Amino acid sequence: MDWVYLIEVLVGGLMSGVMYSLVAIGFVLIYKSSGIFNFAQGTMLLFASLTFVKMTENGIDFWTSLFIAAGIMVIFGVVTERYVIRPLANQDLLALFMATVGLATFQEGFSQFIWDSDVHGLQMSKFLDIGLLDPAPIFMSDHVPWLDILIPKFDIFASLVAGSLIVVLAFFFQKTKTGLSLRAVSDDHMAAMAVGIPLQTVWAVVWAVTGIIALVAGLLWAERVSVSFTLIEAVMKALPVILIGGLTSIPGAIVGGLVIGVGEKLGEIYLADVFGGQGIELWFAYFMALMFLVFRPQGMFGEKLIERV
Amino acid sequence: MSDILKVENVTLQFGGVKAITDISFNVKEGEICAVIGPNGAGKSSMLNVINGVYLPQIGTVTYDGVERQSINPRDAAIAGMARTFQNIALFQGMNVLENIMTGRNLFMKSTWLEQGLNIGRAREEERVNRLAVEKVIKFLQIESIRKTPVSKLPYGLQKRVELGRALVAEPKILLLDEPMAGMNLEEKADMSCFILEINKEQGITTVMIEHDMGVVMDISDHVVVLDYGKKIGDGSPSEVMANQDVIDAYLGVSH
Amino acid sequence: MIYRETGNFVTNYFKDREIFPLKFDKVVVILGLLYLFLYVPTTSEYFLSAHVIPILAVGLATVGLNILTGLTGQLSLGTAGFMCVGAFGTYNLMLRVPDALMSLPFALLLSGIFAGLVGVIFGLPAIRIKGFYLLVSTLAAQYFVWWFFNSYAWFLNYESSGVVAIAPKFYDYWGLGNFLGVDMQGYPARYLLALVICIGLSYFAKNLLRSNTGRNFMSVRDRDIAASVMGISVPKAKLLAFFISCFYCGVAGGIYSFLYIGNVDLMIYEVDRSFTILFMLIIGGLGSISGSWLGAIFVYEFPIIFTWVGDFIFQGAFNTAVVENVSNMVYGVFIIALLIREPGGFAALWATTKQKLRMWPYPH
Amino acid sequence: MATIPGLVLSHNNNHPDAVALRYKQLGIWNSYSWSDYLAEVTSSTNALKSLSIGKGSVVAVYGNNVPKLIFSISAIQALGGIVVPIHPESTSSELKKILSDSKTEILIAEDQQQVDTFLGIESECSVNKVIYLDGRGMATYKNENLNSFDDLIVKSNNASIENDINSINENDTAFYLFDEHEDSLYKVSHAAIINNSSKIITLNTLTEKDSIVSYLPLSIPTNLLFTFVTSLNSGMSLNLPESNQTIEKDIQEIGPTILYAPSFVFKHIITSIAYRIESANEANYNRYMNHYKSLMEIYNKEVSGESSLLDKIKKSWIMLTTFAPAKNVFGLTKIKHAFVSDGVLSKVNFDFFHAIGVEIQHSFGQAASCGCISVQPDHSVSSENAGKAMTGCEIKINDDSEVCFKTDCSAENLAGSNNSNDGWVNSGYVGKLDDVGNIVIDGRLEDMITLKSGKKFSPENIENLISCSPFVKAAVILGNNQDSVSAIVVIDPNSVNSWADRKNIRYTGYTELASKEEVKDLVKEHISCVNDSLESSLKVKRFVVLHRTLVMNEGEVSKTMEVMRKKIAINLKDVLTAIETNKDNCKVDDIDQLSYELDINKI
Hints:
The complex is a heterotetramer.
Chain A: H1 3-34, H2 41-57, H3 62-85, H4 93-114, E1 138-139, E2 150-151, H5 153-175, H6 177-187, H7 189-194, H8 199-224, H9 233-245, H10 250-270, H11 281-295
Antiparallel strand pairs in A: 1-2
Helix pairs in contact in A: 1-5, 1-8, 1-9, 1-10, 2-3, 2-4, 2-8, 2-9, 3-8, 5-6, 5-8, 6-8, 9-10, 9-11, 10-11
Chain B: E1 3-14, E2 17-28, E3 32-36, H1 43-50, E4 58-63, E5 66-68, H2 73-78, E6 81-83, H3 96-102, H4 112-117, H5 120-139, H6 155-167, E7 173-177, H7 185-202, E8 205-209, H8 213-219, E9 222-227, E10 230-235, H9 237-242, H10 244-251
Helix pairs in contact in B: 3-6
Chain C: H1 13-16, H2 23-39, H3 45-71, H4 79-96, H5 104-123, H6 135-151, E1 163-165, H7 176-180, H8 187-209, H9 212-222, H10 224-229, H11 234-261, E2 263-265, H12 271-284, H13 289-313, H14 320-341, H15 345-359
Antiparallel strand pairs in C: 1-2
């Protein structure tokens, strides 16, 4: 196994890790602000991208579709907070988790019911004239003679989008009032309420922001795979990522994504033979997460829990 | 009488925060020992160290003649320690009877297979232990709420049920974390009576954290005073009351 | 309104622990059992094969998941994986153990034990990790098991299509069918075997729930630190819950493959099925055995009834995609609505109904 | 020839395995067959023998109905002793009075509470030994006169007591019964009380298949007669509840066929139903009210014999959907006879119970008449009277309108004061006889109120009318030497609580609730209704809503919840003075050492 190949694998892994991270960030936002493990993240991806794709297929231009889809996701987020999360505010976390499972099921049925259950392709290059959306990959050997690997341009695009999203989010949380309230809420619900932060408004904002993130992530995933219910499985992929990262940490989500992305690729290459079968990608990420958690139950960047009795 | 419990030089830290600093005290067999002190003095942490919920960084706890640096809560229970919690830790999904029955789990020897088939030993154990539980229910006068889900009970009764759950384990030593917090006068009087009877008639050594000085002075034989994680007083109720450090701690002399 | 408890007093603790203390309930249960054992087998093959037997299979899996999630509070998304172990286990036991030594009922129970052991292995991390973090372990089980049987063709007897039909001789029961002159491969016989297993295991689960083991499970679920302070071994309780739960799922998988569809097919045990069973559990109500059955009936029957309604009223307007999407929406709405209005699910609704039958119009 | 222990013996001979006594303990109903009963009595007898109890010894049994206490009654009597039942909630002055008047030698006390009360007055009476049943909490007590019953039983032998039982005479004194109103003791022989219960048994054809729950202490003479003696005499099972907090549930579990209750218990049931329905949703509440109205209409038709088949169907529907559940909750489903003593139910409540099929039978009796002199027959529909005199009894009204009676089952006043001429006994109650000879009780003679105008009336009728509202727990009518009638009203905490919740009235506790204007209006409205049915001089003109309930421990109400005017006049003298002097409000220095401001409201 030569090391150039290894680098290619690593880069590929990092790129798919970015995709995982995108899903994971949405997870972490909601978990951090309300302790809810939002299982509907995957169907939000599906719903957002399907809405977008159906609009473009019907001749609406890219930016309008994007704007409308974002608007729909915001409305969806606010409605979810009002009619699902708020009535359950006093329930235990397991009940809230199950509510999001219900939400996911509903959304899966709903999005395919109002649109359709077909598989849609998405090619953003049709709408946007950005060099990075060109399907041809970059031949690294053109630039660095000894590095004979291919990097799909889209992966770089996705990384850039993810990176800017994180910067925007960071700005949002550090500099805006809503962002500050959200951080206060995630530190201590009761204390935040005591100083007059409207918990429900903060939650609504978080759900709306998560909806927009889901749209962005959904589009990127759709470009890579396709728009169909398989997008829901993105959430399954993101699970080990956030758990490794620790449920409460956005940097954790990113690092976790990269670790899983790279680990998965390496595992497929080096360990598949050991297990005597192909496709260990299917479960390898979970095993990695499991191994990790056994030694560090709160995840990489998660807060250690001191249980008070 | 001999010491059933010896706490020696215990220090407990969370991260950089010292909850308890170098505390030692002894509890004699058969006495009621009250641990008092202002909020945040480390009282609950002390109890948690004694029955192994927290592991101290330094120091040992000698219980029943065995000196240990740490013990796990289950082994502590097997060795005859039972306790209640400051913020009631009842099993909210069960009713009063089931909650108290969990206190008998160490007496249940039948396997899960027998229990699932509901045969022989399992059936008989269920009866025998129910009898023990019923005696405690009678003792605590909670017959009328036997089958009420604990989540529907008022605070005072929940405290009583929790005491029942600890008591039914037939412990040698009972650790009570603020058994009378949040109770009205009448409930406090009842609870004091129960604690006294448990101690005097069943001979169970009791270590109790309590805020109500009246109650402490009335029923305890021995008082340990903590403040900011340090021991500032130790002795009979009257000795402690006369101790200048204790008076300062309670009246809030600036440190 | 109808229930009357007056004059119902217990004279010993055994009587106080009865599952059905009221005479009215006892009568209903006996009538129900007579109906299930005497009438249902005589109904149509279609009814048995398309409704009753599959409900028995998934219902049993729901009871299994209930023991783990409802009673012990350990979230699991690996139910279908454990069912898969049961189905493949049964198949291989029937295939590879000499006929004289093996018969379907034993194979089902033995493969349940296999599934239980697999469950214990994947449950081991539960000793260290808690709550949502445990999802990763059960999902690992789901995907690993699926991958495993997919990768090692030996378990499918090298059947290239990936689906293996079950040979008629597996229903031989040591010649019992010939002896009784009954077609043991027929649906009535399959139904009765499934029914006996399901009733037996439901009774077992109910007993467990009201015994020390069940209380230990619940105490781990409600307050694990308090549980360990009571002297309950939390790791042991969790692992036992995994074993028992996965045993149920394994047996359910065997029933699904052998008594319902009649072949062993990996595609049946994908992660979607784990979710379906989780829906059954949530809608039925966590912690209640009868609730699991109600949930299973609802979730399984809804699409069928919906299709039927479509065929009759709208002249077949609903294609499978519509049915599936609408079903998902309905499940979602039910789950959320129940969690908000009645977190105990159908079981709690039933309990409230019973209470109403007793107290109505008085609120308490 | 029948004596109390003799009955035990004969039941043992006739049907040794039939259930004699059931009691709930540690969560389950244990039962004693008649042979077990006899065995228990035997061991208790032998234990008591060692204390040299013999003919004429006076032994008090002091406590709630626990089996040991029940057995010891027969045991004491088997030795020829006299039993003095004492209410567990007796005040120490009452206890002292009973113990010294009866010259009690030995006290059998239930538990620490009773022992403590006794020790407070130990030096002032002639008791020389105290036997307790439950030693809990008394491990440190050093008093050498204290003995545990269990110890005595362990130390004694188990000889047969048949000879002891056979050697006692039915004319021997069996009980000294305390009459709270008269504040004196009555001597009751075995024959008298057993014959009296036989009359009730024959009149109502009670059999050994019936069951009854005894949830009140046997010191209440009517309770002693209707539950303890009647069950022993007829052989029916006597059921004892687990504790005072579980009575309702325990009655429901047993589902007795016979119910004995002082009137306050039925009043309590009415209140509980109201309290439950008040917290129901609007639709159910309204339907309940409609059903209630229709039910009473149908009942009135039934009484006048006009009910049609349609009415019958309608009634079954109403019963099934609305009132059968209520009966089920209170364990009344199987009731055949419900005897009411110590007061009568108001017409509304009486009719209600009859309408739902609980056949209330008023009775009249007191210690002097061994608990009962008259009882209404089955299916009686008049709420006013208390039935005709039973066989062997005669009733007449003397010139002061006082009810006098003569009975072959009489009890003698220990002080010998009211044994008037020719065996006629003054009951202390005023009343009249109606056309067919039913006795109608108006109230106690000593409670009669005379207004300034010279108008004389019994306050109890008006009190009954006022307290028939589910929101009123009790009422005290005042007016002696005044221009008009006034009332002190005690609201019922439970039903007014749920009423207030329904009306969104906020409050922190009973005292605040009672002072709410809305509550006063509620009471005012009710009293106005009551006034409509009263003649003009008796209309209630002013009322006070009391800031607390009346307390039995203080003697403000009797053991059967009748108001005890004398004690109230002392404890609430501030209120009384304020009313007498026509003030608009008053400051009460109450027994809890706190003072309260009360408004005096005008109607």
